[in-house]
Amino acid sequence: MDILPAIDLKDGKAVRLTKGLMDSAKIYSDEPWTLVKKFEEMGAEWVHLVDLNGAFAGEPKNLEQIIKICQNCNVKLELGGGIRDEETIKKMLDIGIDRIILGSIAVKDSQFVKDMASKYPIAVGIDAIDGYVAVEGWGEVSSMKATDLAREFANAGVEAIICTDISKDGMLCGVNVEFTEEIAKASGIDTIASGGVKDIT
């Protein structure tokens, strides 16, 4: 089993949200790179980063902290949150990010994601409430079913799908296994379960 520790970035700090609510942010560190370093020392091969401000703004907003993480840590890094054009993808890869997570843009322009996956290391983030895809930093729920979106990227060159049941995120209540399996079957792509992880089961 591969474990990807996750760090959410908000206002330059490492935080945890409950069910994706921005005003629920619990601050864990003013220097997020130090947490990434701890995960590295624990043996993590990948760390999952989300720019929460960027997810709402539509462009990266915690760039200073992202650069510090890249400069000070030796794990592989995947980053999502507000990355919606090729220029930003290239910029993030140039500063040291290893894989880009595309979320909201995957709903709005699936062809763009497929085009980017043919050139760059891309993962698709599928975040859902009651089985329907949430976008714009989870601020909106679309009319698209998560499984339909997953199916859209079968055989598209996407490296992985990261699926989150928002109702479990930050709750330490266990992942939604059934939802994760549905996404994996629909896409045929390596699928990372996110949200609610509490133990080895």
As a whole number of angstroms, the C-alpha radius of gyration is 15 Å
Main pleated sheet: 11 strands, mixed
Give the low-confidence spans. Answer: none
Number of helices: 8
Q: How many DSSP-defined strands?
A: 11
Would you list the SSEs in sequence order as H and E? EEEHEHHEHEHHEEEHEHE
| Strand residue content | 25-35%
Q: Overall pLDDT, averaged?
A: 92
End-to-end CA span: 11 Å
Secondary structure: helix percent: 25-40%
Overall shape: it is globular
Secondary-structure-derived class: alpha/beta
Question: What's the SSE blueprint?
Answer:
Layout: E1 6-10, E2 13-18, E3 21-29, H1 32-42, E4 46-51, H2 52-57, H3 63-72, E5 76-80, H4 86-94, E6 99-102, H5 104-108, H6 110-117, E7 122-129, E8 132-135, E9 140-145, H7 146-152, E10 160-165, H8 177-187, E11 191-194
Parallel strand pairs: 1-4, 4-5, 5-6, 6-7, 7-10, 10-11
Antiparallel strand pairs: 1-2, 2-3, 7-8, 8-9
